[in-house]
Specification:
It contains 8 helices and 2 strands; from the N terminus they run H-H-E-H-H-H-E-H-H-H. The chain has 157 residues and is mainly alpha-helical. The radius of gyration is 16 Å and the shape is globular.
């Protein structure tokens, strides 16, 4: 089933604000395509070619292990991850098939651009802030070397 406003939150958002953007794979550089599939494979923990919400919710738990995050911090991250990946196309019941990942990723990017044009909050910023709040051990609003190393481990970079 092709992605559209009936089965994808980012398409739904775009249509609700009058944006008629549509994905065209021809607009994507082959290197970007390869990188996006590699990122999908990072999240598809059981390698079944379907990203499921439980798989992406693993990452906040990984943060608990890496930085001894509190229950409140982990729950805030889980909420942010849930909203972010729902808008990336990961359906809570059906997940997101690998074949749809690239389009879902690109429509999410277009929705973020639209939010920026309209002065609305960014979902990328929401997710980033949830992670940074946990990683900023000393609360100074910056990442020092150790905090940056932890972040790289958390994101498997």
């Amino acid at each position: 089933m092709p992605l559209d406003e009936t089965n994808n939150e980012s398409y739904r958002y775009l249509r609700s604000v009058g944006n008629t953007w549509k994905f065209n794979v021809e607009d994507l550089h082959p290197k970007m395509l390869s990188r996006l599939y590699k990122r999908f494979d990072t999240f598809d923990l059981d390698s079944d070619e379907k990203m499921e919400m439980d798989e992406v919710l693993y990452w906040p738990d990984r943060m608990r292990q890496l930085v001894n995050a509190t229950d409140e911090q982990v729950e805030k991250m889980r909420d942010a991850v849930r909203v972010f990946f729902l808008n990336k196309g990961v359906d809570p019941v059906n997940g997101l098939k690998r074949d749809d990942w690239v389009e879902a990723n690109r429509v999410f990017a277009e929705a973020e651009r639209e939010r920026e044009r309209r002065g609305e909050p960014s979902l990328i910023a929401m997710l980033s802030n949830a992670y940074y709040d946990v990683l900023d051990d000393d609360g100074d609003g910056t990442d020092d070397d150790d905090e940056l190393k932890t972040k790289m481990k958390a994101f498997a970079v």
